[in-house]
Amino acid sequence: MSARSGSSARPHKTNGPVSEAGFVLDVRSLGRRPGTMRDVRRTATDHGRLGLDLIAIPADAAVELDLQLQAVSEGVLVTGAVSGPTVGECSRCLESFDDQVGIRLTELFAYPDSATEQTTEEDEVYRMEDDLIDLEPVILDAIGLELPLQPLCSPDCAGLCPECGVLMAIAGPDHGHEILDPRWAKLASFAVDAPGTGDPAEGSTHPDQPASAADSAVVVSENQEEK
Ligand SMILES: [Zn+2]
Ligand SMILES: [Zn+2]
What we know:
Residues 1-21, 193-227 are annotated as: Disordered. The protein is 25% helix and 27% strand.
């Protein structure tokens, strides 16, 4: 009776026997007596990518289900937790990173012949098909809401240098492209001039260890003058 009433064509209906696996739960054993409960603990690996453009649970990654099924008058209420590993791309530094996501579900799956099934649209309340519940669309929606649109590898990710694009985490906090402060510019020119304008006293105290060819030339000329 119930099987026939569920015959309205559904575009995603699969062919062949569908059985309990992955995110599909067979609720036949639960029965229909309201209040009856069953726990489902399972690791699901047969699924597509679950998430957003920049961050998602990769396809076939191990997703942990810790659920409770409860028969209610209109269907089966699924509650519990779902969690799995995510791979993301940091929206600031573009580096790939690993994380975890966890969601809590509370979702009613209406019996095919229930009043709920008759009086609601398919996109309002999930439906049970042939005593099977497919959690994948529910999990996909919930994870999509839970994951960040702008994922970060860490909350304080420094991102990329806006001038040259180098990873700030590698370049360090001193990295920058600012024009030198005038005070530092003076010091810098002094440092450049220093080798050539060696103090004559210094040249005479270390005649055998000239710092450069230029210094040695100066030393030689000074020695010649002394003779
Ligand atoms: Zn980052
Ligand atoms: Zn830079």
